[in-house]
Design brief:
There is one protein chain. This protein has 10 helices and 21 strands. The protein has helices spanning about 10-20, 65-75, 105-115, 155-165, 215-220, 250, 275-290, 315-330, 345-350, 385-390; strands spanning about 10, 30, 30-35, 35-40, 50, 80-85, 90-95, 105, 125-130, 140-145, 170-175, 185-190, 200-205, 210-215, 225-235, 245, 270, 300, 360, 375, 380-385. The strands form 5 sheets. Strands 10, 11, 12, 13, 14, 15, 16 and 17 form an 8-stranded mixed β-sheet that branches. A hairpin with a 6-residue loop joins strand 12 and strand 13. The protein is globular and about 65 Å long. About 30% of the residues are buried.
Length: about 400
Amino acid sequence: MKLIKGASYTRDEISSILGGSKQSFLPDKDGEVVCGCFNPKYNPDAPEIVIVTWSGDSDEGPGVHRVSELMIRQRGSIPVFLKEKANRWVYQGRHQLKNYLRHEHDPETVQEHALRANRTHGDLLMFFESEGQAGDDAIRSYLLTWNPNRWSWDGLEQLALMTADGEVVVDSWSCGRNKHIERGSRLYLLRQGVEPRGIMGSGHALSMPSLRPHWDESRKKEGNKALMLDVAFDRLLSPDHGDEPLAVTDLKIPELNAVNWNTQSSGIEISSGADRLEDLWQTHLSEIDSAIHSETDLEGFEGELRSAYRRHRQREQKLRKAKIRQEMQANGGRLRCTVPHCNFDFVERYGEIGVGFAHVHHLKPLHDRTVPSRTKLADLAIVCPNCHAMIHQGGECRDMETLIKKTRRGG
């Protein structure tokens, strides 16, 4: 039976067509989620944003944690239904988890969404998009702005490191007077007011704009509000800590002449040249991330105490990423713990979610360095988390060669 978009179905009909439980919000069959059945009472932003709780104020049914984990690991789209009334579910078409942000576990972020949905708590957010939406030419692009003279962004350098290492940072941001930015829109963050000026971040809109307490603390105390939206930043740069933004001078090209690069207003649409801007931005990021030397000779200063980094020892994320790439290239795309007699492989144990995962261990401990020194890829080792913990148990840095005692057989 073919599902018709906009038509309503009972849970019995959905189960007979697709299989799976008649109670679960993510019915599954043979280890795969077959559809999503979301109740707007608990998920007013569904199907784009779905709040999941293991227990409490939801009707998501039994086995919530299990089916949620199934959905997170699953690729491809599923049919999605929204509850219209008692035992009537309207078919919304096929949806899939977003490539740039599939889910979010951060308690503060989840709780913020839960409270806005009048739920007492939540454990997980899942972000869906309609099938084929990713890469859709119809997706619009907008500029958000940041002026350091008007608002100090504490912790930006750490957030920049997180995004450089592949993590997504979710935050809320002012969008000026623009009420019409849609979920999924491409967003670029423009630094203004002080040099260096230019594009220093990118992401996607996770919500429509809404009035919220003002971002300026003094205006917030006066009860003022501002139009804000939730943003999933896939990359942030920290210009005050060595990251060069994509300069405004490089953006003044014919394809982008229509954009006001001197704007102080957040939320303006990039009506033409958005594809060209994305190309420039990705090229700029590639230049930042590229190693100065070949990966076999890649090295970086570590151990220097820097007050700008709150006097913690600098660890260059590019070294870790380069070491993982080097090992995967040398071993057919696999990573194994290099501690003798361990050889743990995350792909063998966990499958696809283990691809590219491992810890990177410094053979020369950073805490022993009293002056800046160079770290090469040969000074790093791929290890599993258990071995890494045992190497440093009690504040030590044990020799990998003797960490695991060889098991004697037949003795």
